[in-house]
Amino acid sequence: MPTYTGINHLAMVTADMDRTVRFWRDLLGMHLVGGLGSKGYRHYFFEISDRDMIAFFEWSGAEPIPEKDHGVPFKGPVAFDHIAFGVTDDDALWVLKDRLEAAGFWVSEVMDHGFIHSIYTFDPNHIPIEFSAPVAEVDLRQKPRMRDRRPTATALEGAAPQAGKWPPVARATPKADRVVYPGEGTLFADDDGRD
Fold it and tell me: Could you say which architecture CATH assigns to the domain 82-142?
């Protein structure tokens, strides 16, 4: 199995990159660490942590998604519910809540979920966002807990990956056949002095 290092980036969409940069960089304090663009689109990356980023494509004609309350069931096409960002502690939640409210954004009250405390809001694209601070005494990564009253049979197999549930690889790609094709991001490797 591979070793995962976090979320390299979540890729979202906006029709207004300037407003998106103002929100994610200037209001939330995430560094704008990369930007690509050509006719018809832009793709900008914001640093969440030393391993995780969120990125936005700017596409002309894109429209914000309808606001949907976090965690409320929905019928119809859907891809995800909300993005939850971890913060260090409850003080960070209050700082974010105060900043967002001062900027005119709706923010929920601080909610106690047992293992985290959270606030909820929406970015300018109506993307539902949660900010969560850990509760020190309850670490689900160190001690997984299944509290579903009617868990699925697969979930009851345990927290660890189960071997033999998928077909094995019949033939691994030989190193001599592994090819990496260039994408637009190869521009980041160029030292053209435009930083």
Answer: Roll (3.10)
